[in-house]
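REVIEWER CHECKLIST
Item 1: Sequence provided? yes
Item 2: Single chain? yes
Item 3: Sequence as submitted:
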Amino acid sequence: MAADKAALLIENNNVVGASGFTKAGDSKSVLPAFAKRAATEDVAITLITGASLGYTTDADLAENNALLRRMPFMADPALRKSINDYRLKYIDQHLSETVEQLICGHIAPVDVAIIEASLIDENGNIIPTTSIGNSAFFASQAKKIIIEINTKIPLSFKGIHDCSVPNSYPDREVINIQNPTDRIGKPFIEIDPEKVIAVVYTDITDQPAVIAEPDVKTTAISNHLLNFFENEVKKGKLTYSLLPLQAGIGKVANSVLMGFKNSNFKNLTMYSEVLQDSTFELIDSGNLDFASGSSITVSEDCYDRLINNFDDYKDKLILRPQNISNAPEVVRRLGIIGINTAIEFDIYGNVNSTHISGSKMMNGIGGSGDFARNAYLSIFVCQSASKENNISHVVPMVTHHDHTEHDVDILVTDQGLADLRGLAPRERAEVIIENCVHPDFKAEIRDYFQRACNQTGGQTPHILEEAFKFHNRLKQTGSMQNKKTLA
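Item 4: Structure as written out by the authors:
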């Protein structure tokens, strides 16, 4: 049926579980049609996806008051504004935990699942498209299923997926993955055909990712990290194939991975969430042998190359449900090297990756926490300063905690790298200030730390009256810099 007719089958106050993970494999017709319906009708839903949706779907739903609650991730500016204006309730979750919460009944069960498919096979199974996310579980739990068949996706996508649905507690099975190439499920999503209430055809490609070219700062971050890995190899801690890599989304993480192209590191593997342009650049360069993820989110040029030459990549890829791609059990077993981005971090290694000035949601936490706490190496990267160096991304105290000092091993900015392994808090502060802080802020941060040690002492010295002075100054003057000191 047509998308607008299918959208009428979604009832007010329904919990809708929709496919889509960081703009890949999302609902491109039914959810936009529901947003249009909500513009003239008083209807709203709780929407659970894998991660963010593409095009203007999240924005249209938010602006038409079609959302009661949204989880577990978002990255859309209009949706962000609605969240920060508290016009809808946003639940920010570790991406491995959404299925767990649904299994346990901690959140309301899914009424309607909307799943994008490349095809439906002769047995009624769904072959997903460019992501799996939480789709397999949504389809198993939902009372009703709407399938969007996307004719733009080649039928050759059949075979790259590894779909499974976990058992409920206490009968939870071991996730038997010992290598990124291992499979534990089936290449399709099993469904009960009796649940299917609509099949909608679409021919819309995923929204392309916007990939910024590496710049001076991101190249410096990449070089610092590559030098660190070279030293780990010299010490005998790693080999030139490293351990499986995970990288968060965005400009910095993508640029860091691009740095591996012209490096000594070969026969690399990935066990990650989002497979970005850098994944396919590394496959093309011969540096990366295999990549496991939950979605493929790439630029328009990379998308065209991938689709037109898919058979060249097919045996080097697996897409999994995000409760498997992000499973702490597997992350710990494989010894993942996790590389994620920070908005800011403080002198003791605590990381804020979601909020601006403590209150305003920027993007969700995503899977960074799943990997950070369980990785062989937990690495966070960001530029040392931005906005013409008016904002320092290393601060005395973070205004929001996503990853505590206990979960962070390595911090990297364009200024340098801080190896925090085995260091007590005061030792961490010395290393972070020396290696990661932008020169315009280094003297003031060092002075703060030294006075905190002298005045308050303790395990983790802070002067509470001054801990947020950078943020307060930014609010008052538009800059974290102390103009009087600079003058």
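Item 5: Key structural point noted by reviewer: The chain has a mean pLDDT of 96.
Item 6: Recommendation: ____
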